[in-house]
Design brief:
By secondary structure, the protein is mainly alpha-helical. Helix content is 52%, strand content 11%. It has one domain. It is built from 3 helices and 2 strands, in the order E-H-H-E-H.
Length: 90
């Protein structure tokens, strides 16, 4: 039997949401902490670690600026995930 720990990055938050509440500077720390915890649990339990990216309400059809913002946001989330996935230290 194989168990998988799956977690949403940033607990359904992203840079724009954090900016709206004045905590944009905390985003990377939140990401790294959540990923470190997930990595530790997976290591301790011998399970797999998987992740995903959160959705957004920033999309405006036909608006290239919103598409660029979203692309940047998703890239940031994916990069945080891969840094943790391929670093045993988290």
């Amino acid at each position: 039997m194989c168990y998988v720990w799956e977690f949403p990055l940033q607990y359904y938050t992203h840079r724009e949401k954090m900016r709206q509440i004045g905590r944009e500077q905390d985003l990377e720390k939140i990401n790294r902490t959540a990923l470190k915890i997930a990595r530790e649990v997976a290591n301790d339990t011998g399970t797999l670690m998987a992740g995903g990216i959160c959705n957004t309400n920033l999309y405006v059809e036909g608006n290239l600026e919103s598409e660029d913002q979203i692309r940047t946001m998703f890239q940031e989330q994916v990069c945080s995930y891969y840094v943790c996935m391929y670093s045993r230290a988290g």
